[in-house]
Amino acid sequence: MKFKNDILLGIGLIVLSFILPLFSVGSDLGSFVTSTSTVFAVVAGFFIADAMSNYLRLQTLIAQEDGALTAIANDTEMISGNQTADVYKAIDEYMIAQLNSRTLNHIYLTDKEVERIEIAIDNLKIKPEDSVIFDHILTARELITTCRQEIALAAKKSLTPGHWAILTMLALVVTITVLAMRDGSFLMGLVSALMIVGTQAVLVLLREVDNNYFLEMKLTYESPREVFHSVKQHPFYPYFPEPGYQKPDASGFYRLGKKEGGYELIDVSKIKSIYLNK
What is the pTM of this model? Predict the structure, then answer.
């Protein structure tokens, strides 16, 4: 469970609010709590806005790249002579390599697979009547190159260790001042616990947005399905995702990667596996 440690820390903070002895940090406690909370909110909000801008841009780039791959597959099918095999295989291998990389910042890990797509496109035998379609394919290939260059930048983390040090220091100050406002009653202890856990939740949210975790869960296993469908392949899932992300296509099949390489074809209707080798 990915958030197990965060949940345990949150529980510990809640318990701390009730068992820690009462203390004071000054007579004007209300103003102190307000000022520290405001500073934390402003700084955290700035970093969240910065991370979200990359998040949204990365989401657009991934959708554009997948759309371009789908367009290449569909346009290749329209070219005379049924030359889809090599292009389809190259696109399929590229998508599998992306998913097996376990990160959206896969650009430098999939250079060979992109080269195979380019070679497969260059090897297409074009007739005069296919020139317009081939132009569309080349335009889509250029879009993939552009998207990959931008993904390499957008997928990087925005926050440095220095940023995290500032946020951690501010979170500690907020925690101390919130704990100081307790008066021994259950209600104030509960309010303090919720405020501290809320501060922790902001840091967890910022970390996961900056690490692209939410986007990986949103797009990594959904968006590629259309690409696999366009190249006449069953959807592929790497060996490490949670079972909930593994969904078959309309025929009831999906491909599940194996840790040692290759994949197995899962027939959901018959509950059996057929092992395949690349």
Answer: 0.78
